[in-house]
Amino acid sequence: MTNQRNWNDVVTCEEALAQLNIKAATLYSYVSRGLVRATPHEDGRKRLYLRRDIERLAARKRGRAPAGAVVESTLRLGDPVLHTAITQITPHGPRYRNRLAVDLASAGAAFESVVHLLTTGIWQNGLAVWAPLDTPPDVLRFLSGYEGGVASSDIGALLGMVPFALAMQQRGTREIADGGAVEAARLMLQSMAGCIGFLGPARAFCPRMGSESIASQILRAAGATVTPETQRALTTALIVLADNELAPATFSARVAASTNADLYSCVAAAIGSHIGFSTGTGTEKVETLLLCEPFSELDSRIGRVREYGASLFGYNHPLYPGGDPRADLMLQAAASIAEHPDCKPAERERTRLSIAFLNRTRRELDAHAGVAIGLVTLARALGLPDGSATAIWIVSRTAGWVAHVMEQRTQAFLLRPRAKFETAPSVTNGAVG
To answer: Are residues 169 and 300 in the same domain?
Structure first.
């Protein structure tokens, strides 16, 4: 078994089921939620489970578990650890301040209105236009160094630098001193949206024009067609991805906020967490390993979904075991765009093949597409270049990060958990002693 000696003790599936008195489906759910760690058996067909995790869960079933075990489990999609009035996770998707995200998107709400709702708690149907706000000249000079474009795999890192650039010239200090969080949030959103121009045909920053929407700016920056239909489809993605409770990047933003860091630095911390291999880069893996050329051979990748669907591509989100409503709505938007007369034939065919493949994985493998897959499919239907999905996700989620930063500030305590120290095994001549 690979790295077996790094697992102090393991049990078989049958032993785990007997000790916990549960069904196999429940055990698999524990694994997907991170409550039980698993490793492949040496024969490649079975899995073994860490005995310590099984015993901890068994103790909780018998009665109250030790405080340390309870606290540790909360950090792995366990019990709630922070109070929030921003987003509630429901089987129908995230609910933003008592309004379902999918309902807001389906009703034609503006992304700008949803940003206002998340950050202030106020819903204003007519708040769909932001006043013009210029990206500072020093930030534009910094971004000019990337004229000529960036690789699709680098767009997340570039967006991570934008908040730090905006914090310069004492703007970060003034955001805290003057209470300018809402204006700072809008400045970040439009500046990051403009960076999608580095992926588009101009390969340069694309400033926001007048009072145009963030969706319109993104489409124009990427060189895509800007119509009411394409704006509405992209707005769907921006709305449903704006927040998802305490995702790892959101928790990072709240940790930074608890230290009284300025808003720009908090968002930069969140982006650094978001573009980790296990989270936000899921869009890149979908683009390069799953929904990629040749599209005529998509069915040959069914094995990749079976083996790596959850870990690589984000299938079967543990918070949405019946399917992710956010991904479903984005896939519906992609299908609608593909059927529009203005959709280019190549993009229409690619979208149809992708959706047919996703329907097959759901039907045959009970594999429900996650938001990374839904977002990439929609971006491709809109004719956006690869890398755009990563950028759109960051732009959208910035709204939620800002809301959580503002809320954490009101709670006025430092987020500083304790670690449980364990003595590492001694090593002698390369062997575990």
So the answer is: yes
